[in-house]
What does this fold into?
Amino acid sequence: MTRPGSRSGTTMNDVAAAAGVSQATVSLVLNEAAGTRFSEETRRRVHAAAHELGYRTNAHAKVLRDGVAGMIGFVGDFVATAPFAGKIIEGAQARAWEAGLLLLTVNTGGDKALEAASLETMLSYKVAGVVYAAMYHRVLEVPDVLAEVPAVVLNSRDRSGRFPSIAPEEELGGYTAAKRLLDAGHRRIAMINIGAVDGELPAAVGRYAGYLRALKEAGVHPDPGLHRIGDGHESGGFDNALALMTGPQPPTAIFCANDRTAWGTFQAVAQLGLSIPHDVSLVGFDNQETLAPHLRPGLTTLELPFLEMGRRAVELLLGGAERDGSTEYFECPLVERDSVAAPSKATSSH
Amino acid sequence: MTRPGSRSGTTMNDVAAAAGVSQATVSLVLNEAAGTRFSEETRRRVHAAAHELGYRTNAHAKVLRDGVAGMIGFVGDFVATAPFAGKIIEGAQARAWEAGLLLLTVNTGGDKALEAASLETMLSYKVAGVVYAAMYHRVLEVPDVLAEVPAVVLNSRDRSGRFPSIAPEEELGGYTAAKRLLDAGHRRIAMINIGAVDGELPAAVGRYAGYLRALKEAGVHPDPGLHRIGDGHESGGFDNALALMTGPQPPTAIFCANDRTAWGTFQAVAQLGLSIPHDVSLVGFDNQETLAPHLRPGLTTLELPFLEMGRRAVELLLGGAERDGSTEYFECPLVERDSVAAPSKATSSH
DNA sequence: GGGACCGGGTTATACGAATTACCAGCCCGG
DNA sequence: CCGGGCTGGTAATTCGTATAACCCGGTCCC
It folds into this structure.
């Protein structure tokens, strides 16, 4: 069964010996080096021998000589294991592969020691660059050691401003969501946020700012009681939606700052015997593929363009050069489904 | 800002020059090679110089000399991007890191050409082994090239029997699920499967077999009408649950062969105005973390032990040696939540 | 006082591929 | 008959590390 030479370790010297030529000839022929001339017969023999022996180039020897490896480091906090962020890796990997590069992946789980150690290891492997990715959009500290290679911060922003960053355009997303509901005719539009708007959660801050802007632009005075702080999970949506819908003046529409929150809202609405979108319209955020399309009715939401963001991160790495610490923002497109309708006439307090 | 020597490329020779010793001395001191003796003063100078210059070993040079790299290849079809299988990578990576190894990850998205090419690249990097992972449990063809290194099939089984495989114990899982419902007092127990039981879907086949075994053991004659073939998605659960619950003799309990199917069932049950677990009890499968705990009521389900399976795969690789093509099965523990209760007295046809 | 031994290092080589410089033979022109 | 150019290659060097082999000066012991 074992093909001849399939045991690890066939080198160019072996091929050279089998073909009756020198190692240099093998190298030149196999790499089709420019400006060299070998007879057809020699090329044939070299290729035949290489094939016969199952020759495979030793990447380490090559890197040692050439200086840079065909690998890109990808370190994330939870990206690899997060249920929805897989696309971010998929995009990065796809772009890397187009350039013939492989991804050396580590997800640290937030462990700083592991992070430091794996970065060291990556650098010792002479990676062509490092993508430093975060599961959710925030402002973070980038390890100093990344200054030694091309590095890009993905789905977050570098506090120090040393590295280029890639992040979703939260404010525009929030604006688009609210505008969609306004355009449908709603005026009492609640927002269940995924965290406080004071701090370092650009998603919460930005989406809220966009929501406010859309309201103001439409001449709607925002009711502070309609903005609620959830926790980003299903339960945050459930509890807040329950409170909103059983309050004195329930909203006719709710913008949930992420899809999980929207899901909780679905469950609360169902529990109250109300229906979506008849009694209340909903817009989510994230377009989480395991959730948004499968809710009944399907959830209208904004898509986080993770695939493109991942691609772009690697693209920036490959481009090299610039290295300014500016942030590139990605627009989140609206994905229409069936959770938005015009408000019903009766402004019932159920 | 740039620390001295932080420019890539400090070698042992630089350190040696700075410390006034030979390159060999640097190597021996830094690696604390056994059986060598250097004065405290020399060691100090070497360490100081290495630190000062920001020396970092060149992994490629080391691998070239030593023959084997500190990397493990991980190739999966969709594992990296699947919403629930992240744990499988997390486990593999954790175990690898304990051995000081990094994961070289590729998810092929089912593209055989990409798969072949990335395996070639991985082998050229002299990976210590390869984990060949699948998103869902099936019997698959393993590329021949993997015979050249230690390799393990993860979350699937190798058809050829050449490689050790790791898979969940489906039959026992199905048995446990059904038994949980039987123990609660149910007799009319439906199963919504995730695919046909004729073919190459061990999850569908095994879980069904376990379900049948539990029924028979309890003296319950299985009603063929209660076994329905879904598609593994939410809609498969929804449609089939609707059909079951509106049929002439609805079941008092349903075993859904995965959590997404269970979710669809939740939505169907809600639509019918029924409640879980009062009108019908449910057991799922997968313990999908974004789903099962957040349903209302929480879903009782079986957990796929992906973390342990991932760990074990790397463990087998590191162990080396054996290399028989046997399959190691992992038990799926029951996770109790609140979707199971005793059947209500009234055998209402709703 | 001469060999054995030990502390404290150094020299040289190998790993596998890429690349530069060179070389041998042949043909051709003048 | 000598030099130049072309064809078809080869020899030697480089990358950075690990390690086996060796070396030198001083002690100790008989």
